């Protein structure tokens, strides 16, 4: 007996910090709620307890949870470099509050066993499993046998002097910790035995800078698909990165910012505007988007979309979106010049990183296929 077709949607980073939280999704909520399963990475926690443990802490408040429900989200990742910004009690309280409203999350737990536990959602007989990991986070954010935190895939970085002459640019080598990669592969293989489709989220990559994808992202993403993952959703970089088709499976190296703002709770609190961060990467913030603190190119974003039939992903597209001056994503259609701009940008940065992929319009969505 055939299973009813379903769709899985995925978006990038979410940081909500405004008086009316639901309004950040006002232009996209209808489309996101239409997905059978909709996923997001949350670059903040949702609790009113704890204290900021580092200077770049993002805003945390439980009053933002209804906005996630309004936005149509069915599953979240909390595994990222902000997981423990406000301490372990804050994370546990966030988990409890999400449990109270039946909003599943992955990538974190009261111990490493919980952090590695998947979320499994059943839609009309099709089971979709979600796992989430962080590759970019402060040391100590990892969960262990007795400590809450996130599920890690930690990364080594080596600066290799390839020219004998002093002061010349090094080759940057990055690779996953062997034990973390092995644990991740074990998780995926186990989950694949329990579900039809495996979706894995990674908080990874080089943020702020256009296009560049570190080598470890290829290593980790390819290992995930080799282990049985069907779709990879990358987050963290606050700017969209390229897309690759590897062995017929889509790897979104970063869907970029989706609904992320530096509002008063962060700007006036322990985090503060990340101006020094932008200067470090020689990035100029878009002056017309004062709460964004990202470049104009970072307005190009998307909703990843997987069409599942009979327990398999049959087609992957993305819905082009453009972030307005108030940090709110808006869907843009094919005939809109902004949509063609998103299309061209994603195509250009994918080509610049030599990713195997081909893009074409499929109605108002962009079809993603293996490169020729």
TrEMBL record:
Native species of this protein? Niallia oryzisoli
Q: Which SMART domains does the entry link to?
A: PGA_cap (SM00854)
Family that this chain belongs to: Belongs to the CapA family.
**Keyword Hydrolase tagged:** yes
GO terms for MF: hydrolase activity
Q: Which InterPro entries match?
A: Capsule_synth_CapA, CW_Biosynth-Accessory, Metallo-depent_PP-like
Q: Does the keyword Hydrolase apply?
A: yes
Q: Where are the transmembrane segments?
A: none
**Which Gene3D superfamilies is this protein grouped with?**
3.60.21.10
For this protein, the Enzyme Commission number is 3.1.-.-
Q: Which UniProt keywords apply?
A: Hydrolase
Which residue intervals define the domain Capsule synthesis protein CapA in the entry? 7-262
CDD domains from the UniProt entry: MPP_CapA (cd07381)
Q: Provide the protein name.
A: CapA family protein
The lineage, from the top, is: Bacteria, Bacillati, Bacillota, Bacilli, Bacillales
EC class, as a word, reads hydrolase
